[in-house]
């Protein structure tokens, strides 16, 4: 089973990916996490990457593909859950080619639909644990209200991502509309797209996704 989570920035891809991973034991691939890890290197490449990501712009398809292929080479779990990839039509075509070579394909593309003003509120309030990556939000009650600056689970300090501010959000959202949203039609044409109203609590969103998987399981 191969799944893509398609969504604007901060729509809850990472949260749903974690829940899906727990239930179905998938190989969760977050290109954002792969890139953040590469960007933490102290060399010129790391610095350049950090700059691009902090601005809110997309990283080039070549860099993303290289990191992804390296990650897949080292993976033994072939049930793939893509979080933040593909983000351009070119990436989607390359992914299709890559899977076809292995006689494999994408089964589900879940579009997490959230309005722009809600996303902006979520992004500026998002806080992440340095140690266990748990996500909190100081702006939205339904998303783990958090007024303290430490993690409930492990006590470690929380931080704010370099691109979680209003200025970078504008660019991230624009990039999404221009480059990523054409994927909605791309996957709709292939009859793989499932639209999920994601202006709801994470448990309700997860339930909607699971129902679709369970109802279609016999097809795959
Ligand atoms: P979000 O979905 O909240 O924006 P991500 O962690 O998925 O967060 O992505 C953070 C940043 O990483 C993006 O703004 C972009 O710069 C880069 N990035 C992640 N995935 C891709 C991708 N598939 N192609 C190009 N850039 C990417």
CATH homologous superfamily caption of the domain at 3-26 and 77-115 and 175-219: P-loop containing nucleotide triphosphate hydrolases
From the 3D coordinates, which CATH architecture of the domain at 3-26 and 77-115 and 175-219 would you assign?
3-Layer(aba) Sandwich
CATH class of the domain at 3-26 and 77-115 and 175-219: Alpha Beta
Strand content: 5-15%
Order of helices and strands: EHEHHHEHEHEEEHHEH
Annotated CATH topology of the domain at 3-26 and 77-115 and 175-219: Rossmann fold
Helix percentage: 40-55%
Number of strands: 8
What does the overall shape look like? globular
Number of helices: 9
Main β-sheet description: 5 strands, parallel
- As a whole number of angstroms, the C-alpha radius of gyration is 17 Å
Based on secondary structure, the structural category is: alpha/beta
> Major sheet: order of its strands?
2-3-1-4-8
Poorly predicted spans: none
Secondary-structure blueprint of this entry?
Blueprint: E1 3-6, H1 13-24, E2 27-30, H2 31-39, H3 44-55, H4 61-73, E3 80-83, H5 89-101, E4 108-113, H6 116-125, E5 126-129, E6 135-137, E7 158-159, H7 166-180, H8 182-189, E8 193-197, H9 202-216
Parallel strand pairs: 1-3, 1-4, 2-3, 4-8
Antiparallel strand pairs: 5-6, 5-7
Helix pairs in contact: 1-9, 2-3
The structure holds adenosine-5'-diphosphate.
